[in-house]
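Re: weekly structure request thread

Next one in the queue (180 aa):
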Amino acid sequence: MSEPKEIKPVKLICGIIAVNEEMAERATAALVRMYGEPDLELGPIPFDSTDYYGKEMGQDLVRKFIAFDELIDPGRLAAIKLATNDLEKEIAVCGGRPVNLDPGYVSESKLVLASAKNFAHRLYLGDGIYGEVTLHFRKGGAIHYEWTFPDYRTDIYKRFFEEVREAYRSQLCCGNGEEI
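Done, posted below.
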């Protein structure tokens, strides 16, 4: 029989897709108020790997990622996704959604994203939220899956999440001078 083991904390990240840089920064400021200071950021950069959000949000979207300094319990991911959904509604302008927020976390072995959409490769986390392993890490770096979104397959995203993983690993072994 296997016994449950203590869960290591993970590094909270959030992807932001926004109609412009101003809205990306507005979302960032709100996320910082909710989850603390980021220690790593990517972007804003053009979000042009899919037109999935085009009908709802328009064209010429920007993408930004932030990784938060404070580590969290991975069991909080569903609640964090619900909170970011509420934040999207708060930021909404005249019923339109100017930002899309995709929280997740990085652990030593993987990048997990939260979603309210169920698919065969997602596991139920609770409260209507699912988790998806989007990338996994090996000695060669970040590896994607057949279901990984096209933008997460790019070198710039993979390099960013490899950097987030390295920062996380440093926090685990050296955060406060003791093993977490």
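The chain has a mean pLDDT of 92. The two ends are 26 Å apart (CA to CA).
Next request, please.
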